[in-house]
Amino acid sequence: MNRKIHLTNKTFVLTAVIGSFLILAMLTANTVWSSKQTGSATEEAVSAVSAFYLDAMADRRSKIITNMINNTFDEMEKALVFIEGENVRSQEELRDAIGKLKSLLSIQWFALVDVDDIVYTQHTTYTGRSRHDFLSQEKMEGRIISTVTLYDSTRQLCLAIPASGLSIMGKAFKACFVQVDINAIVDLLAFDDQDGTYFALYSANGGNISGTPLGPVISDRNILEATRGVAEENAWKQTCDNFAAGAGGSMTFASGQTQETLCYVPVQGTGWEMAVLIRDSVIRDQIRDISEKNLVISRNQIIFAIVVVLLLAAVLLWELRMLAANRLEEEKKASRTFRDMANTDPMTGVQNRHAYYETEAVINQRLEETRHQQQEEDSPRQQEKNNAQKLAVVVCDINGLKYTNDTKGHAAGDRLIKDASAMICMYFPKESVFRVGGDEFALLLEGEAYDTMEEALRAFNRKIEANIKEDTVVIAAGYAVLEPGDRRLHDVFDRADRMMYERKKQLKEMGAKTRRAE
Predict the structure, then answer these.
(1) How far lies 130's CA from each of 116, 124, 188, 331, 350, in Å?
(2) Checking DSSP bridges between strand 272-278 and strand 249-255, what pairing results, if any?
């Protein structure tokens, strides 16, 4: 006999309540499980992104140092040619010639060494064998890079090249060298920094060369000594081996209750390692903030899920997207603003030397890739494509800046620099103009600017020649275009620089003021 089941209001309410609690429990359990899975996935993603970001930061700074060293060597070779052409007959004339290099080639400290190991600088002469290890070599071959420590414990980068064949004042000279203050290199690298981000330069034995702290644990101490005992033993030994071999890598170590990761890459030719560390992982904190906000939203969904789950989900999704879009837009805007500040010359408003070095590195990479493609596809069509690259370098130098500074004051000199920059931008696109020295500008012309370059130069030079008579801004300009045999942008720059100096001689013959008072 079948028993009839009666449903009462009490039973219905009880079933609804129990069912609601079950649904709420299921949603809560699912939310907790999802939160754990999300947290785990976030940690894995953050670790991968952090390591990649650190490695990119270290590699970028390493390349900037390498480019600076290569450019300095190129300037030293120009300096030897310049001094040989000055017909120096006395130590006083030699010191004057060395002094001119500061303004002509932006070399702040330059020295020549004769075959008796006597060192000649702008201000003094001394015996150099006991001070400079590279002079102990019987014969110098190629470029030499070393690190020296002065009497006040200041570290400097020493760059030396042979000067075989140079004979002045009746003496044969064997080498020239420059010394670059490590602090100047540190200043060059101090970009894109934010709270919790650190970088430092180290020698092969782990000694801190730059004097910059690498976080609170390592600070400015020897990196290998500071991380011993706080990093995993095998990872620490591998780092020691990498430093000794001049190789790159990474290492994670304990810092209180957190783990910190540093990446390091070798600086080519110096025996240095560039290390970068982000304190408590800036990237990790940013991504964790977003993750925690998502968890709060998920918990709120539990409260309202039974009544308005669909509506609330839609609203929260919209808010999340708007938040992410606004954050992304703010980060892009902040990144653009910081980059513009770091790459802009404050006096003239055009791009500065740092921006030129970055652009030069990009163009050099492009030329390298083109050469590899040519080797892989060595066909007439590929050769034609390689030769069709349109790129030109224009080098401009202001005449009479030192004369203006000496006779009218530096305020007048600053106005001359600004007027010269404005004049250059009248004839060439402002985005292609870089101020690379005190009175020197470089222009990188591509596309339409390349096509109209010769017409613009003719108009520019006509205006300059008119300015000589009016005693206003006079600028010497030389240019060169990319040729199939050029391996680096500096090859084009060098030809343009030589043409600029020829133009400078022409302007002087026309009556333009030079660096000396006339």
Answers:
(1) 12, 16, 31, 54, 45
(2) unpaired
Helix axes 410-427, 453-470, angle to 10 degrees: 150
**What is d(CA 135, CA 138) in angstroms, rounded to the nearest whole number?**
8
pTM of model > 0.85: no
Helices 9-85 and 182-189, packing angle to 10 deg: 140
Closest to 477 (Cα-Cα) out of 510, 499, 453, 506: 499
Residue 103 tokens read as 């303004």
Q: What one-character DSSP code corresponds to residue 351? A: B
- Whole-angstrom Cα distance, residue 51 to residue 43? 12
Report how far residue 190's alpha carbon sits from residue 485's, in angstroms, rounded to the nearest whole number.
35
- Determine contact, residues 98/83, Cβ cutoff 8 Å: yes
| Closest to 518 measured CA to CA, from 440, 418, 438, 407 | 407
Q: What is the pLDDT along the chain (518 residues), one digit of tens a residue?
A: 556 565 566 665 667 678 767 776 777 777 767 666 666 656 555 555 566 677 788 888 888 888 988 899 999 999 999 998 888 999 999 999 998 887 787 787 899 999 888 999 988 999 987 788 888 877 778 888 888 877 667 778 889 999 888 999 889 998 999 988 888 888 878 765 555 678 889 988 998 888 888 888 888 899 999 899 888 999 999 999 999 999 999 888 887 777 788 889 999 888 899 898 876 555 566 666 666 776 677 667 767 766 755 676 566 556 656 665 666 677 667 566 677 778 999 999 999 999 999 999 999 999 998 888 877 766 555 555 544 578 999 999 999 898 889 999 999 999 999 999 999 999 999 999 999 999 999 999 999 999 999 999 999 999 999 999 988 999 999 999 999 989 999 999 999 999 999 999 999 998 887 654 44
Which residue type sits at 340?
D
Q: Pick from 413, 409, 518: which is nearest to 468 by CA?
A: 518
Give CA–CA dist 439/464, Å, rounded: 16
